[in-house]
Specification:
alpha+beta; five-stranded mixed sheet; about 35% helix; elongated; nucleic acid binding; Transposase_5; Transposase Tc1-like domain-containing protein; RNaseH_sf
Length: about 130
């Protein structure tokens, strides 16, 4: 996180420090996270005998950009959680609306899981398209 992100989060915390449990019960927080499918730090320990330096059992293919990744989205509130959504490729505003908001987040809110979806650190132009 940048210093600006840290300042924004601290400001947000100070604005909501007075909230009680019944106020928090109405909020659903959501986030998406990217998970790399292979180790990135390349610190893999290998035990090998003399002469095995380039044996197939002692080598590993190098894959650009960590060998791929996947993104996941979910929401939580004091009363429960949404189902986990696997995001297959780049997520734009339309896909966010069509694959996350409409089929998962909004039904969760309607079932009484919360009354408000809290969108933190969302790009404004993406939000406008997603909620329209």
């Amino acid at each position: 996180m940048t210093a600006l992100h840290c300042q924004a989060r601290l400001r947000w915390c100070r604005q909501h420090v007075h909230w009680n449990l019944s106020m928090w019960r109405n909020i659903m927080f959501s986030d998406e996270s990217r998970f790399c499918l292979r180790q990135l730090d390349r610190r893999i320990k290998v035990w090998r005998r003399c002469g095995e330096c380039y044996a197939d059992c002692c080598t590993d293919r190098v894959t650009s950009f960590g060998g791929g990744s996947t993104m996941l989205w979910a929401g939580i509130s004091l009363t429960g959680k949404t189902r986990l959504v696997i995001i297959g490729s780049n997520l734009n505003a339309e896909r966010y609306r069509d694959e996350i908001l409409q089929p998962v987040a909004i039904p969760y809110l309607h079932r009484g899981g919360a009354r408000l979806l809290w969108l933190c650190m969302v790009i404004p132009h993406a939000t406008e398209a997603a909620v329209c």
